[in-house]
Amino acid sequence: MIENVIKELTNKGFKVATSVYEMVPFYEAEDYHQNYYERHQKVPYCHSYRKIF
Question: Which residues of the chain have pLDDT under 70?
Answer without folding.
Answer: 43-48
